[in-house]
Amino acid sequence: MKHIISPLDLSTEELNDLLELATSISKDPKKYSSVCQGKKLATLFYEPSTRTRLSFEAAMLNLGGSVLGFSDSASSSVSKGESVEDTIRVISCYADICAMRHPKEGAPMVAAQYATIPVINAGDGGHNHPTQTLTDLLTIKELKGTLSGLTLGLCGDLKFGRTVHSLINAMVRYQDNHFILISPIELKIPDYLRQEVLIDNKIPFKEVQKLEPVMPELDLLYMTRVQKERFFNEEDYIRLRDSFILDMEKMTYARHDMLVLHPLPRVNEISLEVDHDPRAVYFKQAQYGVYVRMALIMTLLGLNK
Ligand code: NCD
Predict the structure, then answer these.
(1) Has this prediction a pTM greater than 0.90?
(2) The predicted structure's pLDDT at residue 80
(3) 264 close to ligand 1 (CB < 6 Angstrom)
(4) What's the gap in Å between 305 CA and the centre of ligand 1?
(5) Atom 6 of ligand 1 has which residue's CA nearest to it?
(6) What digits encode the pLDDT tens for the residues 51-103?
(7) Which is the closest atom of ligand 1 to the Cα of 47?
(8) What angle do CA 182, 186, 191 make, to 5 degrees?
(9) Alpha helix segments (H runs only) across 213-300
(10) Is the shortest distance between the CB of 52 and ligand 1 below 6 Å?
């Protein structure tokens, strides 16, 4: 049985198959409307979410399956002290597949060890968010036509932003990608990513603190929110939250075909005026998230053949 805990749990070949399936689904979603009839998806969300949980649920409903779960740990038996291990053993009796979001890094991995159904990590603390990465890869592939030879700017909270960590891990597997990491010094990427993923693999990258000067170099700009919930004190959050605000003035430095992605939710880091620019694709990205999760559910349930 396969689980998706890290973006690297799929080989590049499996990933390409999955993205291809997602593209086919996007062209004719109705064709897949009863593929998962009789199957159930459990969504176990111990941390807030809008897009990820609802896009998982929409994905399963689009496939003709059904959904059950909780969106708040306070309303589940966790509040009585139940462990993740026991919860997943029980959920395995009720559902065919599950998506779990948890504030503790590694919790979905622990769940996978006790589950008898496939477990999908829907975000674990500041660690990984593989299905957001699948969403990002599908968006890039569809709108740029390639996943290679790109200069990617990642901007904002690169320290706590799990979507950034997963995206870097995934994009280094494709040829000739360059990374420009734009953040305040306090929010630079974690050391293990810099050393083990970028330096050890001789991946070209630079770390900068200003957005404007690097704008003309970028094929993609991946904006992120400063992750308030992972800060130890409010003062630091307030000091850092508005470090980067993408507005139309800054967009004038960008190439005409640069794309702006954002996993959402946005707080302040992209001005509303940018939404009208055709290069802003973050709402399309959210739509791709449903197709890619449909493809993932089908694949993990072995219904993709
Ligand atoms: C992201 C997350 O939860 O990590 N959101 C999402 O899943 N689309 C990004 C964020 O919360 O900033």
Answers:
(1) yes
(2) 80
(3) yes
(4) 31
(5) 263
(6) 899 999 999 999 999 999 999 888 777 778 889 999 999 999 999 999 999 99
(7) 3
(8) 80
(9) 234-240, 248-251, 282-300
(10) yes
